[in-house]
Amino acid sequence: MFPGAGRGHGSKALPDRRLRCLAWQTGVAVSAILVAWYLASNAAGNLLDLGVASGFDFLLREAGFEIGESTFLSYNAADTYLRALSVGFLNTVRVASLAIVLSTLLGTYVGLARLSNNWLLAKLAAAYVETIRNVPLVVQLFFIYVLITENLPPPGEALNPIAGVFLSNRGIAFPILALGTPVRLDYPHLSGFDFTGGGSLSPEFATLLLGLAFYTAAFIAEIVRAGLLAVERGQLEAGYSSGLPHAQVMRFIVVPQALRAIVPPLTSQYLNCTKNSSLAVAIGYPDLVSIANTTINQTGQAIEGFTIIIVVYLAISLTTSGVMNWYNRRFALRGNRP
Asked: How far apart are CA 291 and CA 84, in angstroms?
């Protein structure tokens, strides 16, 4: 056989293989488009037969219902469904963002505690992880909600564990910074049957925030522990032999390498935390899903309502994934160097 005789045959087969792959992909894409078109047209026909109007025109109609919490956007019953859904979206982003931050901090500390040389601390951390991970989140939410609403005293007898912080069955009241000249702390104070001034968290918001943070932290703790254990023991010994203190060994040697193993699964937990926030409907917190369900019940626009929910959660998840993937490429995979 002459040299290079088979090479021409292989180079000829390669374009043929690419053409076959392209044909298969085109066929699958066309099939998916046809299926989507059939489902959409069938749903539109059924709605027409039932006399149900389709489309998103209902978003501009008056909502006619109140929303218990509206932090970033003012709202009243005379506003449109679009504004009501916007309030639900902002409430979802608010609780999910805070839960991600709290769960990351708590999960990191619990993960480090599991690697501690202190036997009691390590066992307590392990018990926390195994208990929280194996109890459904919705059960934990109901448990926390009952603790807050049924076992805490009324505002007139509120617990005061820290100066300016009050715990009652109306939620948590705490001081906040009041902008002005000079800048000061605005403390809550009892006025009638509730606290005024300062900041406050409703029982529903506090329940959802604590539930999401505790639940997600249990999974993050295992991710942190696995990432630290993935760094070879020789790396630590090399750092210590160079005369570096423990803090610098962790900062410059262990953590940059551990992040490569931690960030990808951590992204999944952030996404799960955001999606789990939809359980707010179980305890009455007005998130996107809760307000969308009310909208669907009033307007009958079920397909449009669930489409809005899907698109919004997809957008939030893709944004979170994009940010975490950027961080992974920019810092974690490059050894945490700028």
From this structure: 7
C-alpha dist (Å) from residue 74 to 66, 78, 140, 208, 290: 11, 11, 31, 22, 18
CB 137, CB 215: distance < 8 Å: yes
Which two three-digit tokens encode residue 313?
């959660």
Tokens at residue 150, please?
């049924």
Given CA atoms 319, 323, 329, 332 in this order, what sign does their dihedral have?
Answer: negative
**Is residue 211 within 8 Å of 141, Cβ to Cβ?**
yes
pTM of the full structure: 0.81
Give the type of residue at 56.
F
* DSSP for residue 172: E
Residue 170 burial (C-beta neighbours within 10 Å; 0-12, 13-18, 19+): buried
Place of tokens 């160097």: 337
The residue assigned the tokens 């501009």 is 60
CATH architecture of 81-332: Orthogonal Bundle (1.10)
List the one residue out of 230, 256, 280, 229 whose CA is nearest residue 87.
Answer: 280
Could you give the C-alpha distances from 313 to 53, 94, 138, 272, 293, in angstroms and in order? Answer: 25, 14, 19, 11, 15
CB-count burial class (<10 Å; 0-12, 13-18, 19+) for 73 = middle
From the list 27, 50, 55, 67, the residue with the least C-alpha distance to 307 is: 55
Tell me how crowded residue 1 is: count the other CB atoms within 10 A of its CB.
5
User: pLDDT per residue over 82-129, tens digit each?
Assistant: 999 999 999 999 999 999 999 999 999 999 999 888 999 999 999 999
